[in-house]
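> tool_call: predict_assembly(chains=two)
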Amino acid sequence: EAQVTQNPRYLITVTGKKLTVTCSQNMNHEYMSWYRQDPGLGLRQIYYSMNVEVTDKGDVPEGYKVSRKEKRNFPLILESPSPNQTSLYFCASRIGSSGANVLTFGAGSRLTVL
Amino acid sequence: KQEVTQIPAALSVPEGENLVLNCSFTDSAIYNLQWFRQDPGKGLTSLLLIQSSQREQTSGRLNASLDKSSGRSTLYIAASQPGDSATYLCAVLSYNTDKLIFGTGTRLQVFP
């Protein structure tokens, strides 16, 4: 089944403890992206990647890092999480570089930082 | 800067009603507009994608229209069912960026 898989789905952590949220897609998509969703603010893009070894900042990149060493994986790294990073995170991918192509989303990762 | 607004924020209707969800955007220079469905504990599912040159798209009981000049889109759901209960998001892709800008969604509840 074609899908985007995120792990963990739920995580409670403490301020300053480094964590990684993994994202993997099995559709050979070039484009991958991370979003966070907060009440009243909608989905906002954190980082995106047009292809392997190519990453760019989205609208809210502060406090996050990403890497794209393989086409299928796009992990989101929080080096020193803070409570304002408590949110619902989505990874998404699409074929090619064109925004005309439909995004496929993962199921989401709910992160709580205490 | 593109801004996307969805009204109403929440809607509760009895089963069988036809309903309309609204989406407005501030910059009409868009490449396309997409409607998504979000279910609790699940990701977003793409429902309909309307290119800027199109006026509407249909899929089953769903019909989405686009009026680019006025900055509006509507999602029409015919004969609503309890299974339609979810949050519906619209998103636009502007010409000068490659990013989808999302609205904050309409939370729909259809009760039997």
